[in-house]
Amino acid sequence: MGGYILKRLLATIPVLFVVAAVVFFILHLSPGDPAEIMAGERPTPENVERIRRSLGLDRPMLEQFALWLLQIARGDLGRSIYYDRPVIGLILARVEPTLALTITTITFSVLLAVPLGILAAWRAGTWVDRAVMLQSVLAFSLPVFLIGYVLVINLALGWRLFPVQGYVGIAQDPLQFAHRLVLPTVSLGLVHAALLARITRGTMLEVLGEDFIRTARAKGMRERRMLLVHAIRNAAIPIVTTIGSGIALLIGGVVVTESVFAIPGIGRLTLDAVLHRDYPVIQGVILVVAAVYVLVNLLIDLSYRLFDPRVRY
Predict the structure, then answer these.
(1) What CA–CA distance (Å, rounded) separates 173 from 162?
(2) Total Cβ atoms within 10 A of residue 149
(3) What are phi and psi of 276, to 5 degrees?
(4) Entry pTM
(5) Three-state SS at 265
(6) How confident is the model over 55-70, as pLDDT tens digits?
(7) Which residues lie across from 124 on neighbouring strands?
(8) What is d(CA 21, CA 15) in angstroms, rounded to the nearest whole number?
(9) What span, in angstroms and rounded, lies between the C-alpha atoms of 219 and 236?
């Protein structure tokens, strides 16, 4: 297994290189000049040119890319143009809210979707199955921001059960931390849960049609034990894969959710960086997110053996 992990880690290097190259050239070829934004509302050409020289934006693009790669190799993601702070420091300062929202969202979606998917597969063709699938299609079709605003209007402004916006660290107040994460977690988790419920239902339907399930029923095994022990374990690998792949879906949703609920996380940092044409921050955030996504996929692959001992690496 050690050799397999080493090969997968080495394989992330070309992946991250391609991601870095694509992000760098797309940003630098897109319209807009960060020097003009930093120069103010009425910039003079001399002032804009001075800022461009100080930022190194007057150099050839390939030279800028090579210098940036050398910085990354040293563990330096550059310095923010807008905040005038190291990018790595900005990212670390915003990690906690995003990490907390991601963990609560995945937990909520798994606890909601997996039982519903199992129930829909067990009662396939009945009104229960159709109701679960209808809700899944509806939740997956709605934008995250629309779900968030509906929850805010009804549960926050209408019934005043939850705060509208804001974030409190878990170290400051654990109760407020959990209270303020309810609406963002539900609005983002419903979309992920919809996809996961459909995958769980389809996989469970396939497993429930296998010979060993029919044999277990013929021997008089209880339905609950058959579903929760034998069937779900054989259906676990596609479900776990979907959970990991859904992180990409969460990454896109986090940007919108953090903006709707004013959560000072990495998604909000990315949006601010895009608005201010802050190249180093955008590049650094995307590179870190790509590395995390590759690492999560590796962990998911390693978890397969927990569900199927026949898996070999």
Answers:
(1) 15
(2) 13
(3) -100, 10
(4) 0.88
(5) coil
(6) 777 888 888 889 888 9
(7) none
(8) 10
(9) 24
